[in-house]
């Protein structure tokens, strides 16, 4: 490596996963063309890469907040482009980073644009999922299998139940990142983890009722009510939790459905919702081999499916509906419009909606690799998720701030009301 070339990550090479960094290069020749490259290995050992060609200014410097990428994994001025454009060599591969105690390490390199691509400078960005002082407690009590994250300090803090997705196993990423921002968060596995069944034929709200009670009684929790955050299939679970269970003040629904999907839902040993199913004849196989399943789900508004619709007008808390306009898993925007119409017909105004143009299904915490397609646990094959990478990345940044604002507004204010009543 050439010692005179300096690659810096500001304010520090060590940061939180959802914090931006400022990438700067100095010591190059005037107007020199170089390749900036990023590499990272996920929890499954898969290598992800991104690269972009930049031209130094007259002083031999490059500033990713000022200078455009000329070609590569992205073009234009994209300060965090090297992170969200990380891709695996194998198609239909999703980036897996779910263990809170394992940082996301990204190696940044400056390479010569011509010749053999000799490395001129390198630096590693350590992106922590778990902030200093945040506690992680594995929960195995009663039927609950999950992880509880608690911020440092005396608190009390607002509490959130994180359902993440319907997939088997347990993902800690979003939950611990919320805890870093001042929430007590319990993320739970639904199946395929610890001693839970590897597969399920039905779901029971009793499990989530137990989880809510555990969370409400956890140390440092303020108020009497909790928030719920979801994504995809867990979106309809979140709606049912908010509708049928007590103590839910705020629910974030991201790219879900307004009906109970795939599995019948039970509560106290009685089925309360039938399952909305799919019609495989409407699923399209694309040239890449991935499926486009957007039109595969049956119409929840059809008369024959009315027993799958969730009566969200009965919910006492607030809703934040989030839909990606290019969601190829299903038509999230249509489901939001149907829910809004239903609530308004019942005289309810306890909701707000956000639509993100050119964004795909997996809206997650920001600065992670964009995923255009991957294996679908329910379908059993790779599927397209939709979205344009740049727009999707911008949506994740905006949504992450909005989620925190929404929960703080409705959970902390609820705590204040509860305290006043006491």
Describe the structure.
The chain has 422 residues and is an alpha/beta fold. The protein has two domains: 6-128, Immunoglobulin-like (Sandwich); 135-421, 3-Layer(aba) Sandwich (Rossmann fold). Helix content is 20%, strand content 30%. It is built from six helices and 25 strands. It has helices at residues 81-84, 173-180, 205-216, 233-244, 332-345, 389-421; strands spanning 6-10, 14-16, 22-26, 33-41, 47-55, 62-63, 71-72, 87-88, 104-112, 119-128, 135-141, 144-150, 159-164, 184-188, 203-204, 226-230, 248-254, 265-267, 270-273, 284-285, 291-292, 318-324, 351-356, 373-375, 382-384. The N and C termini lie far apart (66 Å).
Class of the largest domain, according to the CATH hierarchy? Alpha Beta
Number of domains: 2
Q: Major sheet: order of its strands?
A: 11-12-14-13-16-17-22-23
Per the principal axes of the C-alpha atoms, what is the gross shape? globular
Give the % helix. 10-25%
CATH topology of the largest domain: Rossmann fold
Report the biggest beta sheet as strand number plus sense, adding barrel if it closes: 8 strands, mixed
């Amino acid at each position: 490596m050439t010692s005179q070339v300096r690659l810096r990550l500001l304010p520090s090479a060590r940061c939180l996963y959802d914090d931006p960094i400022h990438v700067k290069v100095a010591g190059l020749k005037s107007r020199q063309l170089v390749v900036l490259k990023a590499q990272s290995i996920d929890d499954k050992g898969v290598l992800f890469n991104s690269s972009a060609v930049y031209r130094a200014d007259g002083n031999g410097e490059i500033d990713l907040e000022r200078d455009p990428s000329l070609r590569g994994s992205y073009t234009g001025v994209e300060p965090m482009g090297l992170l969200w454009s990380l891709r695996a060599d194998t198609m239909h591969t999703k980036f897996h980073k779910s263990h809170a105690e394992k940082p996301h390490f990204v190696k940044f390199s400056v390479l010569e644009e011509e010749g053999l691509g000799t490395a001129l400078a390198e630096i590693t960005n350590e992106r922590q999922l778990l902030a200093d002082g945040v506690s992680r407690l594995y929960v195995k009590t009663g039927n609950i299998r999950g992880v509880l994250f608690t911020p440092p300090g005396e608190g009390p803090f607002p509490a959130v139940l994180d359902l993440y997705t319907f997939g088997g196993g347990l993902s800690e990423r979003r939950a611990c990142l919320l805890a870093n921002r001042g929430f007590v968060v319990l993320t739970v596995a639904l199946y395929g983890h610890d001693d839970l069944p590897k597969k399920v034929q039905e779901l029971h709200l009793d499990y989530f009722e137990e989880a809510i009670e555990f969370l409400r009684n956890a140390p440092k929790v303020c108020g009497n009510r909790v928030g719920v955050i979801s994504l995809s299939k867990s979106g309809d679970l979140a709606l049912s939790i908010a509708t049928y269970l007590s103590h839910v003040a705020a629910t974030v629904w991201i790219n879900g459905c307004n009906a109970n999907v795939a599995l019948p839902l039970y509560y106290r040993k009685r089925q309360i919702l039938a399952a909305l199913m799919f019609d495989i004849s409407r699923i399209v196989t694309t040239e890449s081999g991935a499926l486009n399943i957007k039109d595969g789900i049956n119409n929840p508004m059809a008369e024959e499916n009315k027993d799958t619709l969730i009566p969200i007008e009965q919910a006492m808390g607030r809703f934040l509906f989030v839909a990606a306009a290019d969601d190829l898993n299903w038509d999230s925007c249509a489901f939001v419009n149907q829910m809004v119409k239903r609530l308004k017909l019942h005289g309810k105004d306890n909701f707000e909606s956000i639509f993100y143009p050119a964004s795909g299904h997996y809206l997650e915490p920001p600065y992670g690799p964009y995923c255009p397609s991957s294996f679908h646990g329910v379908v059993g094959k790779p599927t397209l998720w939709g979205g344009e990478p740049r727009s999707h990345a911008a949506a994740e940044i905006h949504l992450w701030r909005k989620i925190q604002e929404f929960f703080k507004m409705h959970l902390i204010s609820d705590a204040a009301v509860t305290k006043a009543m006491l």
